Amino acid sequence: MYLTRFRVNTARVGARKLLSSPQSLHAAVMGGFPGILPSAGGSPRVLWRLDRNARAEVLLYVVSPDKPDLTHLVEDAGWPTLPEVGWETRDYMPFLDRLAVGDVWGFRLTANPVHSVRVEGKEDKEKHDTKPTPHVTPRHQMRWLLQREERSGFQVVRKAAEQERLPDGDDCELVVWGAQRLRFRKTGSAERAGGRGASDVRLTTVTFDGRLQVTDPAKLRHTLTAGLGRAKAYGCGLMTLAPVASAGATQRRSA
User: Fold this and answer.
1) Alpha helices, DSSP H only, in the chain?
2) Per-residue model confidence as pLDDT tens digits over 163-182
3) Which residues are CB-contacts of 162 (< 8 A; sequence separation ≥ 6)?
4) DSSP 8-state code for residue 188
5) Tell me: the pLDDT tens digits for 195-249?
6) Quick one: which of 51, 76, 125, 228 could link to 14 by a disulfide (CB 3.0–4.6 Å)?
7) Burial 34-53 (b: 16+ CB within 10 A, else e)
8) Distance CA 64, CA 239 (A)
9) 153-183 burial code (b ≥16 CB/10 A, e <16)
């Protein structure tokens, strides 16, 4: 596994086009892996995430089974005339192999927190289906993550009682920010669907920052390489870790 960081040149037209379309950016990321086919569910796969740290500092993180070649991204959305390579790739396995029970790390995760809502079936009024519906409040979004921590190999660090500043829902070292409601058309699927609007994609994404303690290294390794939650093709699910000393100040040195 490899962890890659790519700095996006936001002044370029190509960069702005990619940043405005999760589908286009996903295609551009996947273009760096000529040998990777779509992965089976739950197995290591290509994950990516955008960190918009400042207006002129947008970082693209990629975790992947193979080492990427992002030359095309440099040409479209980087600094192609600089002598340095436009991205940095590290072997991720030494870090993953060192994870141990009890370790404490800062973390960042951009995710698509949803829950299932029962809807009445269109064909048979007696039957009901469910559809994924986004969580829209920080409280419910936090709960979505906390419900997955055990199976994902970690526990979000709990606060001491004297550190809690709110009467309810402030017992974890966890913040939610950067909510985005995305809506775009999935290119090429409208014609196959045969119906107007059938290819629209709607997502609500948020970013979690916090501290976690490792409870099961094998499960956490799986979380870091296979992703957490839905919409992984659109920049969701990639969790990165950082030393506690730098957590919250920056995620630039992820893992």
Assistant:
1) 13-19, 22-30, 71-77, 93-98, 138-146, 189-193, 217-226
2) 777 767 788 999 999 999 98
3) none
4) T
5) 555 578 888 999 999 999 999 999 999 999 999 999 999 999 999 999 986 444 4
6) 76
7) eeeeeeeeeebbbbbbbbee
8) 13
9) bbebbeeeeeeeeeeeeeebbbebeeeeebe
